[in-house]
Amino acid sequence: MGIETKIEKVSPQIKPDVMLAQVVPLISIMGAKGAGKTTSAVLIALGLKKHGKAVYFINLDELAKLPDSLPFDENPDYIVINFPPDCSDGIIECVPFSTINILVVCDEPTSITAGYNIVKNLSRKKGIYKFHCLTNQVRSKQEGLELLIKLRKITDRFLDACIENLGTVMFDMDIAYCGNVEYSKQNIDKAVLLYEGIVLKLLKLHR
User: Fold this and answer.
1) What is the per-residue pLDDT for 184?
2) How far apart are the two ends of the chain, measured CA to CA in Å?
3) How many secondary structure helices (H) and strands (E) does the chain include?
4) Domain count of the chain?
5) Distance of CA 71 to CAs 38, 56, 58, Å?
6) From CA 33, how far away is CA 64, in angstroms rounded?
7) pTM here?
């Protein structure tokens, strides 16, 4: 299934040609399974909505567990796409049209390896060299910075890519709970606040 067909299937209100023409900022969120990719995508979308922005959420991860409160505004200010963990060739066809590529990474070897592979595939196959890294599920900002440095050491050695620091999200049980089947509105509202710094940085990028 082509990327345009898949996008139109999951988001019939927004035609692929409109989205791919970058009529509105498109935020692509990628990362390994277990890194908090889907939770980050959901909370970023809800955070933008909290700031009065019209948001359309597109989920391309068929295994993702999502809440019922996701925004699907027909005339969005932002489009947020949650990519599957593998970011296969068919899926990454959409990424070159993305305004911001967010790489969600946690301090696990599989997450760092997956992050490197995503950057490698997109830089070599699609000519995408700029990424924003969200270090997730860490115990301190220093730990988040060390994780970013760890990823940069690998990419700087083997790839011609720039990974900028989008910010750090601390480990929190409310965020962890958001990844479960049962979503609590109270927990989601609290978790959105923990992503406030990330959302503010995204808003600044498109003033």
Assistant:
1) 62
2) 35
3) 8, 6
4) 1
5) 14, 6, 9
6) 10
7) 0.87
